[in-house]
## 1
Amino acid sequence: MTASVICILVTIALYLLMMICIGAYFSKTNKSTDDFYLGGRRLGPLVAAMSAEASDMSSWLLLGLPGLALATGLAEASWTAIGLAIGTYLNWLFVAKRLRVYTQKIDAVTVPDFFAKRFGDDKHILTLLSAVIIVVFFVPYTASGFAACGKLFNTMFGMDYVQAMLISAAVIVIYCTLGGFLAASTTDFIQSVIMTVALVVVLGFAEGCTNGFDNVFANVRQFEGFLDVFKGCNVETGAVGSYGALPIASTLAWGLGYFGMPHILLRFMAIDNKKKIKLSRRVASVWVVISMGVAILIGVAGYSLMKNGIVPHYANNSEAESVVIDVAKVISSYGYIPAVVGGIILAGILASTMSTSDSQLLVAASAVSQNILAETFHIKISEKASMWVARISVIVISGIAVLFALDPSSSVFRIVSFAWGGFGATFGPAVLLALFWKRANKWGIFSGMLGGFAMIFIWKFDIRVMFAGSWLDIYELLPAFIFNLLIAVVVSLLTREPAKEITDTFEQVKAEEKA
């Protein structure tokens, strides 16, 4: 083992140890399951903003997005980023404050709990459906994060993929089970800083190796369509095609997913003061735009590095997701200090992965222990026992996610894309209607969520396969979101109006939000 490799491993080990220490510190603050899952609504504006966006971006930011830009050019990556930037801003602008006020008003600590109490669901049918949806989509989402960690250590050090993935998963599970929501949010804040440093260092190195961005863009201009946001290209095959209105609408639809992301919605619910949300919105929006812009530029520069033989030739999108890792390897070969820098870059990739996986695990665990066992099936246990059930749920769900992550060839971008679409299509319309339409009722919301859930699978695995290359071959989030919204509105109008106490609460929340 070389000295540079030792420097990298020490840097990563110190980072992992810091995450575990944070978990141990916050374990003392968890007196109840409400503390464990929502942190007692004590998040400050900066931590809320950065933890929300770090938990949102995941390994997709440092692996998936640069790889997509490198393998397919600017079109898909750029329009996806634009959709996400718009979705981020609108989510903070319209949803954050009202959701914070509403969930405190009705004492809801999870997203399924919010749906049940908002619509007077005494039978907990919304709770059960929401919890099942969370588990279904968060298991593969979390698995993609574990897989990214495995790819990292396998590519960088030649470690066995499965062993590396298991070690990374174990660290995440340890600090999650110890510290709960506050540990996850605090580590997410730190991880967002490390992710930013990693992005800037990689881009700076790529620019330096190619003697400036003029040369970077001169190299990619040789590939027709690479820099054209209205042309799709494929680096592997050399094919170039138009990227018209329908594909653009399809990729912009990524922004709709924000309205239904449970791990982001929880940050809104946990903010300590509704008046500080404006600051959080500004910080979150600026960071998202800058970080995604830098990630796309890394993909562009990565293509130039590949053509100059500085990083390996990537045969497909999945291989191209290793470009940041390969840049870290090159940097680390220059000496001890560069090796530490390489270790920080790799820690950034781990940070991007962990910041999402920890939040997802907590949401999925709350769905099992709080929403299914305690609320739906009315299993009565003490507060102390409930805390242990919550922690055991984190471990069990992690174990299932590990099984999904055993395949090292899966694409991080594609897995995240499907899970993101699933949450956006099932929860997005439900959240918007719950917050802004007084006439919505539980049967409309239930029918819409069920319809959106079914449509995600039907569109992804049937319609897109049968009509590949046609106008129906679009991102499944968009049609499923619209389908959910239409069903929810129609069924709500055809069934009984909500009870007076429910509509009274709705009006009170509107008034309190403006106060």
## 2
Amino acid sequence: MPTLVWPLLLVLVGVGVFLGWRRLSRQLGRISADIGLIATVNPSLRLDATGPPPVRALATAVNQLADRYQREQSDVAARIAAANADLERERTRLAVLMAELNVAVLVCTGEGRILLYNGAARQLLATREAGGATEMGLGRSVFTILDASLVNYALERLARHDGGSHPVATMYHGRLLRAQIAPVRVGDDDASGFVVTLEDMTRLAETAQARQDLISSMTTATRSAVGNIRAAVENVLSFPDMTTEQRSLFLGVISEEATGLANRLSQALDVAPAGEDSWLVADLQADDLLEAMARGLRDLGAQVSVTPPAEDLWVNADGFALQRVVCTWAERLREEQDADALGLRITDSGRLLALDLTWSGTPVDTPTLQEWTIKDDPSAADVITRHGGELWSGTDAELGGAYIRILLPRAQGAVVASDRFGRADRDWLSGYDFSLLTPSGADVEWADRPLNELSYTVFDTETTGLYPNDGDEIISLGAVRIVNGRLLRQETFDQFIDPQRSIPQASIEVHGITPDDVAGKPTIGEVLPSFAAYAADTVLVGHNVAFDLQFLKHKRQFADGLLRQPALDTLLLAVVAYPEEERHTLEVMATKLGVGVTDRHSALGDALVTGEVLLKLLQVLADKGIHTLAQARAAAEDTYRTQVSEAVYSRQPE
């Protein structure tokens, strides 16, 4: 027996020593990781001073150092704040000045990213997408508002004259906008950025048109009134012996016609005071002009086909007035020739450009065309005159039909816009689990970019359940964008979604969203294109983002490539950054990183918390030598394949 007891005791002692060593190793590893967090992102974090006496002593000493470090950090922050006070005052003055400007102002980078905008711009461009987001926002592309070729055109025109600004016109959601574009140069860099000022000219254009209509109608009415007055005066002078009753009759005619003339003149001055309309004429891209005209014709119920110009053509024209004239002609063609199928094109005619309204029918003879131009829309003649006065109708053998043609002046010194703002298509593989986060091919443009220079869309969903394959649907989608290391809380995306199915009570108890909350809301098919526009050119981020992406994967719009960008998972990044932690839920990581948790289990609330967590994690990853998107994705994939168990991904919805 004694010979068996001693080996058994040795084994027990060895096991105890091993377990104690492993526990101590884990404690030291956790202490090491927590020290890193204290030094980088959360100075208020303190170590758990429990365990063996040496561990308690170490934790106590570290906590004392952390207290001193936090105090010194607060002192440094106070000194920095004092040193930046003057700069902040200058920024405040700029912000106040921008806020008070009545003109919409956008400041953009050379690549077209919006760096700054004022309240007037937000109000002018207030067309909202599903989710409450606008098409404009910090870090977003200005080319969702202005066509890239329009900006290229203006900047290259300005490059020839070395300064100033250049006006261009464009249509934006049915409104005529006049844009002044000026380059911003820092040193010798010609692509530092540009400033755009925008004015809504729609009402002014309509007022000018109303004045032209009124003047034209007054011409006819005045001719008749003057004739009546002249006839009455001649009768009074020619027949001095007429009776008092007859004289009163003629004087009444004179008085009535004179009063009518005065009233019409007063009306003209009230509706539209006299002024120059030269501001209505601006450089327009031919494609943009054709698009505006096609929209007007479709509003009349016509079927419209547009033939794009063979090259990049620019006209100097009043697009709003031309649209009205073409719509007037279209109405008469539909009445007299049943021409419901119309075509639009602009072709190069040498010194001038030819704008054609085409149809399958017979040409309009000159007297009829003049009648349409003068009688149906009296101001049309003025429009034609302002644009060169060339107008006729003819037959197009190639078309097999007819056309009405107006010649338009070219924009002076037009240039062919370069493709400096072009975007490369990206094709990202869609799947489940980690494949949802992985692009189909190596994209150097994304992969090698530093994490701190990327823009992110941090999003979260609430759902009817956990299994999209079994019919569960998204009922809420919330998101916030991160640009230049800033969480843009003022530019969020928040939308309830009608799942077109019931919501189980168990799910309601988790997120609190009831059938009444989603009744009548847009469907996911309506919301997803708006979300894709909101998230354009950013990296998608979520906590256990594969759960959310698997729901989007089932939607046709996702398959159509609306969301092509790569994705990052803060759950996996948290494991990379803090492997010693046993749990990496959003609440645990928020607490570790010093992020406040509010509005939990709402899509937008969770997205905001996840965004704050991401910003902290990026600092920790940088200390671990992870600086680019490719490095972060490689580390996350390694974590997924080697450290994260299946249970991590079978979570309740975050």
## 3
Amino acid sequence: MGKKVFLLALLLATVLHVQAVTVTSTAGKLSTKITDHGATALTVNGTIDARDFLFISDEMYNLKTLNLTNATIVAYNSTLTDRLLPGEYHYAANTMPFCALAGMVKLNTVNLPSNLTAIDYGAFAGCSGITAINLPSSLLTIGDDAFNSCTSLTQVSIVGAINHVGSKAFIHCSNLTTLVINPTGKITIGDEAFADCKMLNNVTIGATVTSLGNGTFTECKALKKINFMPGSKLEDIGDMAFYHSGIEELDLEYTPHLKHLGAWALARTKLKEFTLPAHVKSLDEGTLFYSYQLSKLELPSTLTYLPDYMLAGCNQIKGMPFMTHNMGNIGDFAIFNQSQHRNITVPQRVYYIGTHAMSGLKHLQEITSEPLQAPELGNNVWAGINPSQVKLSVKEESLDDYQAALQWQDFLVGVAQLRGDVNSDGYVNILDAISERRFLAEGITEGINLNRTDVTGNGRTDVADIVAIYNIINGVRLADHPINLWFDDDLESLGTKTAPRKAKIEISLNNTINYTAFQFDIITPSHITIDGATLSSRGLGHEIYTGQAENVPYRLVCFSPASDDFEGYNGLLLTLNISSTQNLSNNDYITLRRIYFADNQENVYYDNNINVNIIGISAIDTITIDNEDQPVDVYNTQGQLLRQNISSSQATNGLPAGIYIVGGKKVIVR
């Protein structure tokens, strides 16, 4: 009987502990109103102060729910004896006190006073059970570390009249996924306010946010994009604001008032593309330091300097968009370890290149330096480069200066050639394009500097060089030196017979990307001649030429002076007119070889030889090229493995002329 009474009493005590306790109290008297310190839910009406919060945090260790909606926090001046902050401290009215509920790990629901205006330092720090917090419309300030390590918090909405979020206010909130900062007035965000919120992936920044403090979103690994609301007044992004975060996209065109990017602001991010608008006037060091996935970069032409470490380790950037026309100062380690560059152009206004600025450019083959006077250099600017094997091209009147300048003099110093100036007249114009076309299609070398015909710098002369000249003439911003990209496109012959000794070969192209030019050589039996070629309507604005070059009976070259693309993605491209000295038969073939297509960025796409059956309808073998730059193995024709698991765009770089097997396909390196 006694055992049953004991169990009943224990059960009754448990039930009482889960029941809500509601009290009406006056400031400093809460401890006298509550007899059950083990209660899990508490509602307080009336007035409370810092002493009452001390009682709650020290004594009500099982508390899960705290409702202060109808409570008013009044001011209190601490003394040396009340176990609050040492000495005298003023706890303001309508403010959650300093570390008021810090460390209450069982607390999961809090309803704040409806007239609350501030949350003081660390008020909820370490409250790892809180899953949501509704901030009252009266709130003006969230203090430093206010919600530090509230690891169950999933959403935060900072709206209403709030004008300040303190440093580290929500740091280490590891399950926070959604954040909205959209108050009615101006607001500042303190340093590291949301740092190390590893699950944060949805952030909206309202129009009135004027600054992001240092390290605001550092280490936020899931954060890929920031949503800026229309009319953004953001002026400043602080140091390390997005450092080592997951940011892949950041469109600063939506922040027209932004003037400054702090040091290391976007360092070690996952940005793939980045455009710095002209309205950003100030950059600090290391802006994009080791953002190793960055492949496309746009900097304004007005930018006059590259800060120290700004692009160090950004090894995927195509071309040299960081060398803007007005560049004057290239800082220490500015493009350190961008090892993929083979050619560097130093703009005309550069007067200083900092210490180790270009260290690690191990594949560098040529430098074109435009300044008349050799720029001053810091220490070990070219560390890791063998200058005795690198060409340095300068203006003729600058030759003596560079040959006498420390570090510059170690290169193979020579007179610069103007890119695209095929006829060496000092200009790049239509005459160069005509000369290039005549050389390519007809083999005419008169008035041409053969050392300048490879305008793209890809090691050969092809139709992409004509595209490059017109790009220069038309003022188009150029890509990096072209790479061979493999893709899936079908080129087929419709092979229409018109007469026993004459035929039209209609060639159709089904393409997946846009082309602006193409070329191929045509090899025919001795009894067949090519009478000409006609473009279809897909080639509107293009010019087509046939001629004899490099001991090839027929070379066909087609390009657009305006770098227009061919219309559409499928259908008839051109018609070849042929004639024969004898009747044509099903055994008659012509061969297309050196089939090159070029886009308006001067990239070259090509395939091996293709045989075309003249009589009847026949399909030319599919040009099989991969869409993606997948890793491949490279073998020689004897089956010896030369390179393993290398990107297809780099597979044949540096190999001597010959035939190789790349990813299971035959590739000719000339």
## 4
Amino acid sequence: MDRLIDIINEAPETSGVYLFKNESKYIYIGKAKNIKNRLKQHLQQVSINPKEEKIFLESTHIEWLITKTDYEAYVLENELIKQYKPKYNVRLKSGSSYPMIVITDEEYPTIKISRQYGEFKGTYFGPFIPAKTARAMKDLLHKLFKLRTCDPMPVRNLVCFDYHLGLCSGPCAGKISKKDYQFDAKVAKEFLSGNVKNVIYQLYDKIQEYSNKLMFEKAAVVKDQITAIENVIRKQEVLGFSINEADIFYFMENAVFLVIIRGNRIIGKEILEIKGSMSDNPELSILTDYYSKGNLIPENIYLNKKLTQISNFKKWLKEFKKSDVKIFFEIPQEVRGFINRNLPEDNVSEELKSLFFDVFRFNIPRRIEGFDISTLQGKFTVGSCVVWENGRMNKKEYRRFKVKTVDGIDDYASLREVLFRRFKRYKEMENPPELVLIDGGKGQLKQGLIVKDALGLRNLRIFSIAKKEEIIFTDDGKEVYLYNYQPLLILFTKIRDEAHRFAIAYNRKLRQKETLKDVLSQIKGVGKKRREILYRTYKTIENIASAPEEELIKLGIPKSVAQNIKKYLGSI
């Protein structure tokens, strides 16, 4: 401490960034108009603020970088926090940005998914939450507007499989004019932006034009586009907001409720957990962290808290967006109702909290992780990790593991591998789970304790749960018969059953994929490439068996091979 006080006394009285650090990592990074005065404020807080005390106790040195202006300090602080991820700086728990759809600026535009605004030259839409909706939207756009799937676009005489699947209009082979293709790209942009009324009359004109030329197949494609667009219009009329484009941040104690509005409708919502604990202006730090990850910057940002010192943030946003962003410190009433209906609640009853403490002599944790192993005679061995958090299963936090180091049937070794891979992550988490539940008896509990001891995890409790008898075995030697405690029975069997379901689902998925490829390999003329095409398109043997022969031929499979496939699968 004395050494740090001496360093503070030597600090410059100018703007810049200061860094608390030790030999192995950065502890806290901040900025100040006057570095010396700000460091003295930290020091004065040590005796009354436990978090400030931890910063000083864990630091062995303080460094600083002098800047010409306060804005330069703001930008530098943000870059250093991104690079070093200090333990006590406030930031969002999610480590990356959300996916966006990009319609590229090219002669023949294509569709890309990006998590970094500006990564590709084009028009950006989104972000999409949850992330899987971006892939679903990309697939829908290819189906509706048939923008090319190849990248870069080749020049060739024969079209690819995606053309036959109706996912591409074949510009590479001259199957569509440049004018028509660029019109489709324009409509795709309007569809994503929600400004669909701007183009719908033009689409009706297209139908008439194609019909007059007896191009009925193209007219049918445009009709599908109109149907999709009219669905968007109906949704806007029912769910539409007066706000066209905005990100809305509703700050809570340890999290932020983010709502994304694009094209006058909500396209995503997410609860973002907050890491770290120290910041002069925590809400501003959260906003900076979110947009520094590459997320698209909207026209408007709405907050439920008033912020000070926001001028640097607005200037920083303008450098990326090239235009002013409006920031409001009150959430509109029309959106507030949606937020109130969707805010998470603490679903842990007082009865459960009290009973848990009475039985186990510690408070019910905020987060419990459940584990199970699934195998089929020693093959396709997998592990699951499910998460119970604040009274509900948090499926976004689930993890699955393909066991890599164990051959044959060895549940204990498989469990140790899965637990070791997962427990290692606990050492990096700021708020790791306090309790782990393993499906099994005393033997499974022992494997968990072996891994816990090997990794030196001190603040982790491990329970196991035996099926049928529904007994909890604890790491301190207790055996709790859950039928005597109904709320605990519901809690632990819910976590155990979900871990079991998740593990079996992954095991089944691997088996189905392998079985499909094994079956297809027995068919004459179906090599590795055709197996991949069939699997990507149909996923299951049943789907392939029911597919018309003409559809298989459209995939580029020769007629004789298609007949072999139908004949072989028809005999199974």
